[in-house]
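Predict the holo structure. Ligand: pyridoxal-5'-phosphate.
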Amino acid sequence: MSKSYTELDKQYIWHPYSPLEYGDNIVVKSAQGVYLHTCDGRKILDAISSWWVNLHGHAHPHISKAVAHQAATMEHVIFAGFTHPPAIQLAHSLCNILPGDMKKIFFSDNGSTSVEVALKMAIQYHAIKKQHRHKIIALHGAYHGDTFGAMAVSERGIFNQHFHQYLFEVEYIPFPDAQKEDEILNILFTKLKNNSYAAFIYEPLLQGVSGMRTYSASWLDKAIHLCKEHDILCIADEVLTGFGRTGRLFASEYMNNKPDIICLSKGLTGGYMPMGATACNARVSDVFTFNGSKSIFYHGHSYTANPLSCAAANASLELLLEDSCQEKIQRITKWQREFFNEIRSHPKVNSAHTLGTILSLELKSEHATEYHNVLKTQIYNFFIERNILLRPLGNIMYILPPYAIEEKELKNIFHNIHAFLSKI
Ligand SMILES: Cc1ncc(COP(=O)(O)O)c(C=O)c1O
């Protein structure tokens, strides 16, 4: 190749959430543990787990070995009329560890498709029961992905602005800020009197894309309870919060009332392979069991339950369930909590949130919080110059590290956050 990777990348590749005319993308040649090694010799600390997917560090030998072994055994097989051990093992493990007595796992490709599947399951559930319930309830600020159904149940905003007229109507309730919890529960209660709702979808306890902001388990517990009383299916989108990020294996564990459907992706394969999974309890699966052909769920993807993805997920789950990993999650949680207590009242910080291994800081800004807030580039550049990958959401910076991170590496990020705040 006569041209450099950077030139060829610019010539041929259309990157997500990026203008076509963009500066140079950083070329990464390898990744190990919490570090990305670039072609120009830099070693960058991945403080956001490469878009929230990596759990145990990059190129983890246990997962790499499992994927290599699977690749040499069977790379892929049709998943209708056929099945295979890695998928069976994974579905079995997920049903064992997921909250809410989940009975069935439907595999797909990514977080957005896990949400599409959940929505279609919920709508068909009511159709089979001959209940005219079409509408979905969601929270303001929600983000559930970029496919059409997932966009429809997300907040209307910059990510879907060109598609609003194509999105189905959704009933939103306000984000349950601590001071308004009762009021918002009442709004939900009033809406529920109208029996037209099929499902309530939510990111449990922490909304990711809208700013890593948290809300209370007691509010969500009551909201799920209300929905269940009205025969509305509850869909927990745990695409981000699953697999230990919030300090427990799944955020839904913090509530007494459990969802009927859970969406999974991101950490599912430890960040190795694309995969989505939608789990449902017996309330849902029973309805699909006894209704003949009407109950066939006409949804599938060519790569459904891809064996390499299943092998990666099985290996990642083995690591996640080890005591050493659970202890590490608790240690990261403690370090983040200590820093949160130290930084939350900093004069440049408007609000701060932490839940489990995740910490976010909303910086004071003259502009309202928005994705392209001017601070976004400043934050990104400051940290990348110091070999730390933080990818802020507008004026909100957050740390969402792989569990392989060491205390000194996390403290280095904290130190640089202080340095950044004193500079702006
Ligand atoms: C809560 C949540 N749901 C769904 C998605 C969509 O996942 P994917 O990007 O894999 O389609 C995301 C992505 O950030 C997410 O945070």
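The longest strand covers residues 102-108. The chain has two domains: 5-59+325-423, 74-320.
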